Amino acid sequence: MTSSQSGPDRYEDIIHLPHHVSLTHAHMPLLDRAAQFAPFKALTGYEDDMEETARLTDERVVLDETRIAQLDERLRLLSEHLAEAPAVSITYFRPDRCKEGGSYETVTGAVKKLDPVQQVILLRDGRQIPIEDVFDISGELFASEGTAENSG
């Protein structure tokens, strides 16, 4: 066959030959043959990286002295009433594992223990909240807090 041949006569010399069957290699299953033509992604993980970059996080709020004093008072009051297993809602900052920032989460549950060594609030369901990440503590235990300060 010469390079000048073109058109339907180009493969005339081989078109009617029987299909070659290898004596040394097994026939490839159709499923494997189809996999040869699967789309190829040159940038594996690129879409995941783009989603991670686009995911928004919150910045940690720096508490002022008044807010810190209020939280200290609530922790003190909470420690005095641990035997009653008071139910509270705690809003805290949860740092993001992958990037700068994090998110604020609120959990509600009964407090089991305040651990001054580990600096955590331990809830009865086993969750632990780092005291340094606490933004707010609320609950029925603190409902009379404002009226007691104003009456004295």
Helix and strand pattern: HHHEEEEEH
Number of helices: 4
Widest β-sheet, arrangement of strands: 4-3-2-1-5
Give the integer mean of the pLDDT values.
Answer: 83
Q: Over the alpha carbons, how many angstroms does the gyration radius reach?
A: 34 Å
End-to-end CA span: 109 Å
Class of secondary structure makeup: alpha+beta
Approximate strand percentage = 15-25%
Structure description:
The protein has about 150 residues and is an alpha+beta fold. Helix content is about 25%, strand content about 25%. It is built from four helices and five strands. The protein has a five-stranded antiparallel β-sheet with strand order 4-3-2-1-5, with helices on one face. Strand 3 and strand 4 form a beta hairpin. The chain starts with about 30 loop residues before the first helix and ends with a helix.
